[in-house]
Specification:
alpha/beta, binds ligand F0G, four-stranded parallel beta sheet, 15 helices
Length: 372
């Protein structure tokens, strides 16, 4: 058979199997989409749910599953909300986007803005953005502005900028205070339910600005209300110690620290996250940098899943609760891993990597290097 025939056959098979669905199309019934909304896509969503057998057994939770959001187009969960926020901005005739960010929102806004042919401005806390994220924003041609005052200061500044619009420079805010962001992000909860054939018992998630925990809870509640699942999970949110404003008795110690986790002192969706916690009978707890980095290393070594450090807060938190006996070992737990490990090469170099061995290019040399 000629190559072109093989290719034609493969294409036909693909068409029969159904091409990769587009997120906005697949979940249209649950999203605020009109005939005028452009169904753009960079291939976001439909991320894997991986059963973490080894790590699950090690921490006493054999039904531990990981939702790998680092496999989104720009390497984080932000793409689910950004695709809808940008599609709605296009529908409204907007020409420019702005956001404050610790890096992932910026990378996502830059990519979807480029795809939509819009100008993108990202305001970042100086010295607190991991190199991968910064490079993604710059590569996509976003205008990057560094400010002092941490993420909270950056978000205040961009909210002020759009609150008092300059008619010469109309601009759409794409932080998670934009309601379309959370509408898009809730699709991850739909996928979890579909992959498991029902809602999990627990959903564990890192909390920064508290948008994502709010979106997941909304998603689970909507699938339950539609009769697609019978239950909703207990929501477990984990914040970085030292910046855990939703945890009773904890205050922001040093929001200027270079982030292992996402350190946000004044979460924009804080009240809604507390409601998700209370309605689900869940908890929001603090985890230390050490606990987060332990989980980050173990995820890569025992499961082959390289996530960014902030993501590992979910697994660190579940490990801690399981050790305290606060989680029933028979239950199904989903930990959301929000971003990809390559976002932050510096932390990987510092925390995760064993030294490179040296050898001349011979089999004997390699044996010697391995100590065989
Ligand atoms: N995990 C990662 C990798 C993040 O980048 C963020 C937030 C969170 C968790 C927390 O999610 O804010 O919805 O509670 N990053 C934002 C940003 C702040 O600018 O990229 P949240």
């Amino acid at each position: 058979m000629r190559m072109s025939d093989v290719l034609r056959q493969l294409r036909q098979q693909h068409a029969l199997a159904g091409a990769r669905p587009r997120l906005l199309e697949r979940f249209e019934a649950f999203l605020p989409i009109t005939d005028a909304t452009p169904l753009i896509s960079l291939g976001e969503g439909f991320t894997p749910l991986v059963h973490a057998r080894t790590l699950g057994r090690a921490i006493g939770c054999p039904q531990l599953h990981l939702k790998i959001e680092g496999q989104n187009p720009t390497g984080s969960f932000k793409d689910r909300g950004m695709v809808l926020a940008v599609a709605k901005a296009m529908e409204d005739g907007s020409r420019a986007l702005v956001c404050a960010s610790t890096g992932n929102t910026a990378a996502s806004a830059a990519a979807y803005g480029a795809h939509a042919g819009m100008d993108v401005i990202v305001v970042l806390p100086r010295g607190q953005v991991a190199m991968g994220k910064l490079l993604q924003a710059l590569a996509a041609g976003a205008r990057v502005i560094a400010v002092d005052g941490g993420f909270d200061g950056a978000l205040r500044a961009v909210r002020e900028l759009v609150h008092d619009p300059d008619p010469a420079h109309p601009i759409t805010l794409v932080n998670s205070v934009n309601p379309f962001r959370l509408e898009g992000q809730k699709t991850a909860a739909f996928e979890v339910c579909e992959d498991l054939g029902g809602a999990p018992d627990y959903l564990a998630i890192p909390v920064g600005n508290a948008g994502n925990i709010t979106a997941y809870w909304q998603g689970f509640c909507e699938y339950r209300a539609a009769g697609l699942v019978e239950t909703a999970p207990v929501m477990l949110g984990f914040q970085a110690e030292g910046a855990a404003p939703l945890v009773t008795g904890r205050t922001v110690a040093d929001p200027q620290t270079v982030a292992t986790a996402i350190r946000i002192g004044d979460p924009a969706s804080g009240a809604r996250a507390l409601r998700a916690r209370d309605e689900s009978g869940g908890r929001i707890e603090a985890v230390s940098d050490e606990e987060i980095l332990d989980a980050y290393r173990d995820l890569a070594r025992y499961e082959g899943i390289f996530c960014e450090p902030a993501s590992a807060a979910s697994v660190a938190g579940v490990r801690k609760l399981a050790a305290e006996g606060a989680i029933d070992p028979g239950t199904t737990i989903v930990c959301v891993l929000t971003g990809h490990g390559l976002k932050d090469p510096e932390t990987a170099k510092r925390e995760a990597i064993s030294p490179t061995l040296e050898s001349e290019p011979t089999a004997d040399g390699i044996r010697r290097a391995l100590g065989w």
